[in-house]
Amino acid sequence: MKIQIINGANLNLLGIREKNIYGNETFEEYLEKLRKIFFNIEIFYFQSNIEGELINKLHEVGFSYNGIVLNAGAYTHTSVALADAIASITTSVVEVHISNVMKREKFRQISYISAYCKGVITGFGLDSYRLAIESFRIS
Ligand code: DQA
Question: Ligand 1 center to residue 4 CA distance, Å?
């Protein structure tokens, strides 16, 4: 089973940025734990701050992988192009957020991508990613 995790804008700064919201751990540290938990799943990781690179990655893996876990960061709230990319591919995408976006500013409560995703997991810290992978294991 192949799962692609895609992190978007500013998520390269996890462990550094707004620790009160996003925690102290870097994604690379967390990824090691995820790979141990799901030792029988191939977990691929890609991060970019550039919207077009996220779209290219969706196109690249979106017809062959078993699942995509996408935290688009702020592009969640702005990007019609990402929404179209998700709609265009055949692999299911689960939208994740570390923070509970529904408890935050109004602009974060709007997602351009949710309607094209299999589901949304928001507010469980980095554990949101584990829950998303779990959702692919059971379906
Ligand atoms: C985020 C929430 C977004 O609103 C924000 O722009 C992010 C991170 C989250 O994981 O909680 O960069 O996607």
Answer: 18
Identify the residues whose C-beta falls under 6 Å from ligand 1: 10, 71, 73-74, 76, 97-99, 101, 108
Question: What DSSP state is assigned to residue 20?
Answer: H
Ordered domains of the chain (ranges, CATH): 2-138 (3.40.50.9100)
Catalytic residue among 30, 65, 75, 97: 97
> Which pLDDT tens digit goes with each residue over 64-103?
999 999 999 999 999 999 999 999 999 999 999 999 999 9
Strand partners, 97: 122
Output the pTM of the full model. Answer: 0.98
- Beta partners for 90? none
Tell me, rounded to whole angstroms, the distance of Cα 105 from its chain centroid.
Answer: 20
Output DSSP code: residue 62: T
CB burial of 49-70 (b: ≥16 within 10 Å; e: otherwise) equals bebeebbebbeebbeebbbbbb
